[in-house]
């Protein structure tokens, strides 16, 4: 058995069958396939809507059911050229003659029956008169004699599939719905032999000249503009070794029309069958006489020679060197990559022993290749006009008529990927005119802006190019234009580190299911006015970001900051980001600068290829970057921030931002860390200064010379370190130490309730610990929220004590004095002790108010706003409220006494951040949650009253057992 026969007979029946019909559509119809091949289709009402019987007698009287395929082709008389093709390959000829041997069946997997799509001599005459094929000398193919073996094999492969398949059954096999897919010989045009030489160079080799099929004379595989490009020639073999010879699709017009597509839809993609053709389209051909039964198969007579169609990759490659949509093709091929292919490695012996086969793949196409996708490409004219338009952010980066191609090809992939990935649609049905209203981007935009109707869409379409694995639609518009024009493009271009963080969740184009690296900023901020303060790459490299986790231990030896620089991802993985991080020792007594500071060991680093969820310091880099983004976005237009009487704003994460200067000509901003350093007069004190401004469609990017950061001081530290707040702090902290007292008073409660319900701070050790900065405790409520604490000064606390406010010491003394002779606390005394404890607890909690409020001395007029407090009325489970008045250069709170209490200016706007770590600060790797807090001291030796019945005398809460019982029911149960 010769080699050509062995190869051919093994592959000729390798038909690939795929489906693109949506499941919802499939479920609407019931299809019954009868033994004779008849298909009955029913809609939801079970009514028979089509029955197409298969004739029991051939309509062409020259075709005899008892004769073989080969004999019937001879009997037809005008199929001589097709028979010459069959005779060129012994294995194929024997299959047509029904002479396949037992050995062939056993060793080569031969199938005895074929379904043949046979073109006659007139069809071949038209093919030789009009085709794009050339011979080895480059001459146009105009006769059968010029065809090479490879070209003959391409044509013969396009003409049959295995088994007895009627025209009706072409869309009802177990694995196919609506079409079959035919392939020529088992090669891909984008195959790359990879020589294992110990290095990473890609070496290409000429094929063995004694190859049994006349493939290409050389492997035409290059790198163009740094991108791998795969070449191949459709139908001939002079331009590419292992050339992918294409394939074609078999469409059933009836099937798709009964499943919701119109004849116009099918005509749009070139799949509509003309009247009288049996409603079957096979690539460029149509069945004219279907279902001519033979001894060993079916003959379907077709009107044209079926010519292999290219695949999408080949078509895109060819387009790169055309003049219609070469720009779009070039952009898409920025996402090409090499991938080892085990299926093709076995063929490497044809070129050179020991090579491996690599294929050129495209990560954007990989995302949608699960079905039969469509690609929507803009024409060069449309894309160029869009790029050079005045409202395109690229214009702010210097793109112009002379350099647009160079700049377009050098756009960061992080900018380009969200723009072009929407050009790839998961199914060809997504781009049909009848479905145009649903052709939208992931953000809900009409994919072609300005093209509003199916009729307008048809006018915009310049060309539809069918391929064996999908279609390409060329339009005179730019798909997904809003993405490149949107609010974040300028950020990604001018700040590579910030841009990489913004688009990290889009990085894995090849992964169909990915977990976002960070919050989806683009979706949340779309169509919202915002200002984004963007740290420059130079500032992030030179000054970096202080690591708040390292600061939590209060051990200066552990303090560090991280320098962040753009980095390239060179390996496929998960949760990667194109940023490198390197740690340096930090001390606020020294000026921070990576040019002079000593870096820590290489262990303290994280590079682009590292998994940010599981890597050594990847989680810290991830947290620093996501926090940086959240902390630098203000959801207000920049014009509303300039020349106003306000100085305090909140970032997207709730971090307070102090605008030290905000005029039309200059902006100076600070976060809590900058405020702390400046007030401390540290060597590392600094402001964050304006560098330049970029305007986008819905927001403004304000580039600053270095990043802002929140304070590292939590509420516990702020209260403990401020002498004016000493008594308030001592009363709050004492609740945690009174465990025996709480257990004695509230012994029916669980241990967790004793630790959380009856305290201000969460314990930093034990079963219910929450981890904050070393030797501190976190506030027990308002987790992940912004809130304000109006703190009574020591004078205000003394005034409350004089009005009967209990302390832990006084409650413990009352309990001790109330014990009976058996050392037990009587029930009435217990209730009175509980009322005392709850009075102290709720007095403290009422000073904690939801939301952030600032004293704005320059603000002439303000608002009165109701806020909720941390104090809960247990009888109705409602939070007690207070009113905030922020006008006339003052900040005041109206409490339950209906009196306003003012904030003391020299104790106002103290910023804290309660950051909860995932572990003890010496072992922590990330911040689990964080609350941003503003503290104000209350002026005039005053405090806030949570219950007006206690005005002037807190002892009313427990004066009698019944009063105590009533009070406990309201505030404790």
Topology:
Blueprint: H1 3-11, H2 23-26, E1 30-33, E2 39-42, E3 48-51, H3 69-76, H4 80-87, H5 90-96, H6 102-108, E4 114-119, H7 121-129, H8 149-157, E5 160-162, E6 179-183, E7 191-194, E8 221-224, E9 227-230, E10 247-252, H9 253-258, H10 263-268, E11 280-282, E12 285-294, E13 297-302, H11 312-319, H12 326-332, E14 336-340, H13 342-345, E15 356-362, H14 363-368, E16 374-378, H15 380-387, H16 404-409, H17 413-420, E17 424-425, H18 454-460, E18 461-467, E19 470-475, H19 481-485, H20 489-494, H21 496-502, H22 521-525, E20 530-535, H23 537-542, E21 545-546, H24 548-551, E22 560-566, E23 579-585, E24 605-606, H25 618-631, E25 633-634, E26 648-650, E27 656-662, E28 667-670, H26 672-680, E29 688-695, E30 699-704, H27 715-721, H28 726-737, H29 739-745, H30 751-756, E31 761-762, E32 778-779, E33 786-792, H31 794-802, H32 808-818, H33 827-845, E34 848-850, E35 864-873, E36 878-885, E37 892-894, E38 900-902, E39 910-917, E40 927-938, H34 961-971
Parallel strand pairs: 4-13, 16-19, 20-30, 33-40
Antiparallel strand pairs: 1-2, 2-3, 4-5, 6-10, 7-15, 8-9, 10-11, 11-12, 12-13, 14-15, 16-17, 18-19, 20-25, 21-22, 22-23, 23-24, 26-27, 27-28, 28-29, 29-30, 31-32, 33-34, 35-36, 36-37, 37-38, 39-40
Strand percentage lies at 15-25%
Helix content: 25-40%
Radius of gyration: 38 Å
State the assembly state of the protein chains.
single chain
Mean pLDDT: 78
Global geometry: elongated
> Strand sequence of the main sheet, in spatial order?
5-4-13-12-11-10-6
Please report the distance between the alpha carbons of the first and last residues. 92 Å
The class by helix and strand makeup works out as alpha+beta
Quick one: how many beta strands?
40
Reported for the largest beta sheet, the result is: 7 strands, mixed
Helix tally equals 34
Segments where pLDDT lies below 50 for 5+ residues? Answer: 1-52, 172-245, 346-356, 506-520
């Amino acid at each position: 058995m010769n080699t050509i026969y062995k190869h051919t007979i093994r592959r000729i029946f390798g038909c690939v069958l795929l489906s693109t019909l949506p499941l919802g559509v499939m479920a609407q119809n019931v299809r019954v396939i009868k033994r004779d091949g008849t298909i009955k289709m029913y809609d939801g009402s079970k009514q028979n809507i089509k029955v197409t019987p298969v004739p029991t007698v051939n309509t062409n009287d020259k075709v005899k059911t008892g004769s073989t395929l080969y004999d019937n082709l001879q009997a037809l008389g005008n199929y001589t050229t097709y028979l010459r093709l069959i005779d060129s390959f012994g294995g194929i000829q024997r299959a047509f003659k029904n002479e396949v041997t037992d050995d062939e069946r056993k060793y080569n997997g031969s199938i005895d029956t074929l379904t043949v799509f046979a073109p006659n001599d007139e069809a071949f005459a038209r093919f030789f008169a009009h085709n794009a094929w050339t011979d080895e000398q480059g001459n146009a193919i105009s006769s059968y004699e010029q065809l090479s073996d490879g070209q003959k094999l391409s044509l013969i492969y396009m003409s049959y599939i295995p088994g007895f398949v009627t025209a009706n059954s072409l869309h009802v096999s177990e694995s196919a719905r609506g079409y079959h897919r035919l392939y020529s010989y088992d090669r891909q045009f984008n195959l790359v032999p990879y020589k294992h030489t110990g290095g990473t160079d890609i070496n290409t080799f000429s094929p063995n000249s004694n190859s049994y099929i006349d493939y290409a004379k050389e492997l035409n595989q290059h790198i163009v503009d740094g991108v791998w490009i795969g070449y191949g020639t459709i139908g001939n073999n002079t331009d590419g070794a292992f050339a992918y010879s294409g394939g074609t699709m078999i469409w059933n017009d009836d099937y798709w029309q009964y499943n919701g597509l119109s004849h116009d839809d099918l005509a749009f993609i070139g799949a509509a069958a003309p009247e009288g053709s049996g409603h079957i389209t096979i690539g460029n051909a149509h069945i004219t006489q279907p279902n001519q039964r033979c001894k060993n198969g079916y003959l379907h007579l077709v009107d044209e020679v079926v010519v292999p169609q290219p695949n999408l990759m080949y078509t895109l490659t060819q387009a790169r060197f055309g003049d219609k949509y070469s720009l779009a093709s070039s952009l898409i091929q920025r996402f090409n990559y090499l991938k080892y292919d085990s299926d093709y490695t076995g063929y490497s012996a044809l070129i050179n022993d020991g090579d491996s086969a690599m294929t050129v793949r495209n990560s954007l196409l990989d995302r949608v290749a699960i079905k039969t996708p469509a690609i929507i490409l803009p024409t060069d004219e449309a894309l160029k006009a869009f790029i050079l338009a005045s409202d395109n952010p690229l214009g702010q980066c210097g793109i112009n008529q002379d350099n647009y191609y160079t700049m377009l090809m050098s756009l960061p992939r992080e900018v380009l990927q969200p723009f072009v990935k929407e050009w790839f649609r998961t199914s060809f049905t997504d781009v049909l005119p009848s479905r145009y209203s649903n052709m939208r981007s992931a953000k809900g935009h009409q994919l072609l802006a300005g093209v509003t109707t199916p009729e307008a869409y048809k006018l915009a379409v310049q060309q539809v190019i069918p391929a064996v694995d999908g279609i390409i639609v060329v339009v005179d518009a730019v798909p997904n234009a809003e993405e490149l024009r949107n609010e974040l493009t300028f950020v990604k271009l001018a700040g590579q580190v910030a841009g990489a963080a913004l688009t990290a969740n889009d990085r894995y184009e090849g992964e169909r299911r990915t977990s976002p690296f960070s919050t989806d900023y683009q979706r949340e901020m779309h169509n919202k006015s915002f200002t984004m303060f963007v740290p420059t790459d130079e500032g992030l490299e030179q000054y970096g970001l202080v690591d708040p986790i390292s600061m939590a231990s209060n051990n200066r030896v552990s303090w560090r900051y991280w320098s962040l620089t753009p980095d390239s991802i060179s390996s496929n993985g998960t949760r990667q980001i194109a940023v490198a991080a390197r740690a340096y020792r930090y001390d606020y007594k020294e000026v921070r600068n990576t040019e002079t500071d000593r870096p820590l060991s290489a262990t303290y680093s994280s590079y682009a290829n590292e998994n940010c969820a599981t890597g050594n310091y990847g989680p810290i880099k991830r947290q620093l970057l996501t926090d940086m983004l959240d902390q630098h976005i203000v959801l207000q237009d920049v014009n509303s921030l300039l020349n106003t009487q306000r100085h305090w704003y909140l970032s997207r994460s709730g971090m307070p931002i102090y605008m030290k200067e905000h005029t039309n000509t200059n902006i100076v901003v600070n976060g809590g860390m900058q405020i702390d350093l400046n007030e401390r007069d540290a060597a590392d004190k600094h402001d964050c200064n304006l560098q330049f401004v970029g305007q986008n469609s819905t927001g403004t990017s304000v580039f600053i010379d270095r990043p802002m950061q929140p304070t590292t001081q939590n509420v516990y530290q702020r209260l403990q370190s401020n002498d004016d707040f000493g008594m308030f702090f001592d009363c709050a902290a004492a609740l945690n130490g009174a465990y025996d007292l709480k257990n004695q008073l509230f012994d029916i409660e669980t241990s967790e309730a004793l630790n959380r319900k009856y305290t201000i701070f969460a314990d930093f050790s034990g079963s219910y610990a929450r981890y904050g900065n070393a030797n501190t405790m976190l506030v027990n409520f308002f987790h992940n929220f912004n809130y304000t604490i109006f703190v009574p000064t020591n004078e205000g606390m003394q005034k409350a004590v004089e009005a009967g406010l209990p302390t832990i010491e006084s409650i413990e003394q009352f309990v001790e004095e109330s014990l009976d002779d058996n050392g037990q606390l009587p029930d009435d005394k217990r209730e009175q002790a509980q009322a005392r404890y709850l009075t102290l607890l709720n007095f403290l909690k009422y000073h904690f108010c939801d939301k952030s409020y600032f004293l704005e001395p320059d603000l002439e007029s303000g608002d009165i706003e109701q806020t909720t407090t941390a104090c809960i009325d247990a009888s109705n489970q409602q939070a007690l409220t207070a009113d905030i008045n922020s006008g006339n250069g003052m900040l005041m709170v109206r409490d339950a006494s209906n009196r306003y209490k003012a904030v003391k200016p020299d104790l106002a706007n103290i910023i804290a951040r309660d950051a909860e770590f995932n572990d003890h600060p010496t072992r922590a790797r990330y911040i689990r949650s964080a609350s941003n807090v503003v503290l104000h001291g209350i002026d005039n030796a005053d405090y806030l009253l949570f219950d007006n019945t206690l005005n002037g005398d807190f002892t009313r809460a427990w004066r009698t057992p019944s009063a105590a019982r009533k009070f406990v029911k309201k505030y404790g149960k």
